[in-house]
């Protein structure tokens, strides 16, 4: 092989290695089919949403106003409600191994609650801010407003590993409410109408869903009352979504492609 050929071969080999090593961020545009539209309590500053059977769990934030509520998903009938004292600012929730886990924003406290009574059963401390929380089959995973997701032990709540979330244009900040469903993580991005589908192994964004059309007209330009809340309904293979102090919640089926569903 000539020197020229060798150089060409090496260049090709390096290019192939770079291609294989590079993350493949698809950022596929996603679309949705609206299945249901139901009333939502517009006094809830929605932080976390979790569906188990026909019961919806929802956490509501703000200092001195935080609470968690369970209600019938179809009717909105309240089953239980627990308010948090003092300066607690409630954030995301998830239900795992018959425990309801609730984060706090800057209090550095994780609360566990009995899902049947919503009574507080324990607490643990952690460092940093708490935003959203979800669970895989074995771990809890939380967001803190940065591009980093932290996977934690469900018993000790100690961090086990982290994951950097990146799209084709770089790191994705302001990740908020989380849900794990259909083998992927789903995340609201604060102060946007976007939901990201994230590869739970690599952190690559594999899809982006724009729900701007679902924002109530009087909240279109709101700084605080933004899209937040994702709960997967396994029976219907669809997602419940809402926002902070929105008067409505939606059940949507997420579909590939950017064209409107018919």
Automatic annotation (TrEMBL):
One of its GO terms (molecular function) is glutaminyl-peptide cyclotransferase activity. InterPro entries: QCT, Quino_amine_DH_bsu. Transmembrane segments: none annotated. Keywords: Signal. Residues 1-26 form the signal peptide. It comes from the Bacteria. This is Glutamine cyclotransferase. It comes from Teredinibacter turnerae (strain ATCC 39867 / T7901).
């Amino acid at each position: 092989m000539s020197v020229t050929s060798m150089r060409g071969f090496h260049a090709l080999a390096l290019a192939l290695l770079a291609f294989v090593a590079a993350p493949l961020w698809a950022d596929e545009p996603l679309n949705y089919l609206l299945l249901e539209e139901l009333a939502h309590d517009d006094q809830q500053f929605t932080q976390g949403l979790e569906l188990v059977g026909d019961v919806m769990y929802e956490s509501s934030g703000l200092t001195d106003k935080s609470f968690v509520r369970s209600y019938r998903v179809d009717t909105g009938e309240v089953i239980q409600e627990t308010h948090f004292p003092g300066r607690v600012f409630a954030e995301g929730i998830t239900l795992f191994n018959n425990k309801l886990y609730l984060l706090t924003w800057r209090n550095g406290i994780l609360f566990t609650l009995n899902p049947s009574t919503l009574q507080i059963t324990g607490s643990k401390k952690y460092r940093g801010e708490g935003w959203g929380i979800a669970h895989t089959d074995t771990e809890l995973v939380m967001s803190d407003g940065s591009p980093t997701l932290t996977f934690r032990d469900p018993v000790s709540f100690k961090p086990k590993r982290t994951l950097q979330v990146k799209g084709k244009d770089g790191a994705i900040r302001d990740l908020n409410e989380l849900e794990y469903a259909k083998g992927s993580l789903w995340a609201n991005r604060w102060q946007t109408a976007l939901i990201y589908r994230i590869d739970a192994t690599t952190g690559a964004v594999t899809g982006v869903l724009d729900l701007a059309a679902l924002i109530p007209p009087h909240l279109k330009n709101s700084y605080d009352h933004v899209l937040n809340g994702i709960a997967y309904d396994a029976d219907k293979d669809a997602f419940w979504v809402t926002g902070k102090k929105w008067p409505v919640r939606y059940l949507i089926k997420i579909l590939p492609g950017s064209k409107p569903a018919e």
